[in-house]
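User: My instructor asked us to take a sequence, write out its structure as tokens, and then describe one feature of it. I'm not sure where to start. Here is the sequence I was given:
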Amino acid sequence: MTFSYIKILTFILLIFTHKTFATPLYSIMESNNCDGCHKGGRTEKPVLERRCTLDCQGCHIDPTGGGGRNQWGTYYSRNEMNMVNPFPYPDPLTDKSRFDLHYDGRYLKRNLPQRSRAFPMDSELSLRLRPFVKYLSLSYSFIHFGRIDDSLLHMGYDGDRRYRERWQIMVDNLPLNTYLRAYQSTPMYGIKRPNHTLWIRQRVGLDQFATTRAAEIGMTPTVPFFRASYMQGDPYKPEDLKQKGYSYHAGLRGVSFGWNLNVSGWDTKSDYQKVNMRAFGLGAKIFDIVFYGERNWRSVDALDSGASPYEKTYVAPASTITEYDIAWVHIRGLILGGVYETLVDEYRNSTRKSAYLKLNPITFLNFEYWLRSESGSRNLNDSFFLVHLYGDI
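Assistant: Let's start with the prediction itself. The structure tokens for your sequence are:
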């Protein structure tokens, strides 16, 4: 498979550079969207509660990103994210609801040279309670994952990875948009990718299955943001295999061209391995084109290599991963983009080129189509089509 279509896509991106009226809800692409706090025709959000940031907390119940949306995220997804908006959502400043219900289901078809598989990727149901509307929220999520050989989501056996329970107790809306939370959820590190198959998350062990228990503090005093998490490891693993320690994520942005930068750190260890990671990302939105680049450095050191069989103690290996993204977001509800990735670890020295289309035709419905070509230590061409059905009440 050749990638002449990436050249064609790049040419199209350079031609159509006009004012965009709305951009999709993926953190980096929202770097210069101010409608959340400064929407015309309504009262503006109080200064000390504004979220001029790339922090996922601005729109998601879980500050790590993904899953249920808070009242700001639901407002934006209903009013700004889609080509057609038949279900307008009330001004979040007037939203006094004491509970939120979220459903998220995805169905994936993957085409490989030797076979094609269609299967239910996941199904997620989330509930958030807000006893006092502000300051305290209680959340619970039940997630059921599928596998490539499934025809339906079904019960698994003990030790299977099909189920994840996630919860959090969160105190927020404190001065300077500070929050505190105790949670069982995805480990906090970096910007969460909407596509978990990208190497910069998948190959460092932060895919959709990743889970930890932790305590966290975060703040978003308008432009900069900072989060730090004290992690106690994956509750689904034996005590001696739990990676325990610290992680942080911080960044800042500017309105002009939506420039932004972010840094992340990770220091954890189990009884057998110590894992350290660092990441740096830089991006901008110029007219209708979003650019973003990030590099992740990961080291893994054995603490007691003879204490347990290798199969038991395995974690994702040391690696250096780089990712470059470009996306065209001129048309509301449509993204055309490409990704160039490099991966170097003890097993692989590869590059991968991807081209994708993401479409939000109407509220609650999203489509994605990806073409990918990997070369180097492994040569593989594939494509996949994803249907994403979601809803918030």
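For the description part of your assignment, you could build on this observation: The first helix runs from residue 4 to 15. Try explaining in your own words what that tells you about the chain.
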